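Blinded run. Sample ID left blank on purpose so nobody reads anything into the name before looking at the predicted structure. Input follows.
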Amino acid sequence: MALTTYIEPMNTSATHVNTLFKLVYRRGRRLLLAALLIILIEQFWGAMHTTSLQEFQSYSHRLLNLTTEQAAAEASHWLDASDTVQVQALVDRLQQQDFFAYAQIFNRYGQLVAQSSTKLDTDSLEQALVLVEEIKLDGRVLGYLNITVDEPLLLEQPLQTHAYLTFYGQFLLGFAAIAGIFLTTTFNRWRYKRLDSVK
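Blinded prediction complete.
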């Protein structure tokens, strides 16, 4: 009788330790999966952030090239007609864009035809991008359009838009995490209630 009394507490203690071990194992496994998921989300977010920023910059440069090509196409008509007044007017319109720091138009002999009215010290620019576009008409090269671009000003608006989207994207990720916590808590309570009702 004494032996039976001694063995029963031992069995109860072993069962309790086994149950506790399983509980800790399940909790640890969920914690590990949650940590891996967070790392995966951070990696995905970083890659998406870099890719979107590169896309914004690429789009800005494509827009810049398109604007330069259109200006060269317009300049070709004025150079063909030797209308230096319209050529100068074109250069002045280009410089009205904030990111166009300086513009020049040369004829096919390299002689200056028109330039921006505001003189520019290119050394004062943090990052200067120089574009040279041939001015053609019917396959004939009439001259060259030379534009100096202030690249930080060119990318200023796209970078602001990107920062704005990134800021609110972080809030959306936070809300998604909170929603996941609520869903998990609700599911666990519902599951335990079902187990209790079965018992």
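Unblinding after everyone has recorded impressions. Confidence is low (pLDDT under 50) at residues 1-7.
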